[in-house]
Amino acid sequence: MPTNRHELLIWFDQQKPDIQQLFDAREFKKAIEPMKEAAQSFKVLLYALNQTDDLTTDMDHLLIKPINIKERFDYVESNLKQYHAYLQLITLYEEVEKLYAKEAIKKAMKNQS
């Protein structure tokens, strides 16, 4: 079973300290651009999990997704300079990483049968 993490998960782990530092320094306007990049990367990650690169598909129509994804992601995109949006984005990345692991396990079990 593959144990490799998706490259966008690794990328976000590398970005988190920089984004955190901006919020800690209360440089909210400077946090907007890295937050925008992180949100877009999350979207690509989520759609890749669903094996599509059509980012125009409504998130609610994806088969594999975190609960209340549309509302939560809309909140992040609408509040890029707010710390709570950053915390929500971290949680979304964590949930999608778990969904990737779950899908990998399902695939491995299917291949064993």
Quick overview of this protein structure:
By secondary structure, the chain is mostly helical. It has 4 helices and no strands.
Any overview of this molecule?
This protein has 113 residues and is mainly α. 71% of the residues lie in helices and 0% in strands. The protein has four helices and no strands. The longest helix is centred in the C-terminal third of the chain and has 30 residues. The two termini are 14 Å apart.
Write the layout of secondary structure elements.
Elements: H1 7-24, H2 28-49, H3 69-78, H4 83-112
Helix pairs in contact: 1-2, 1-4, 2-4, 3-4
DSSP helix fraction: over 70%
Can you give the mean pLDDT? 94
Apparent shape: globular
Radius of gyration: 15 Å
The total strand number stands at 0
Structural class, judged by helices and strands? mainly alpha
Strand content: under 5%
* Main pleated sheet: none
Helical run tally: 4
**Strand-and-helix sequence, N→C?**
HHHH
Low-confidence stretches: none
Straight-line N-to-C gap:
14 Å
Keywords:
single chain, 113 residues, mainly alpha, 0% strand, globular
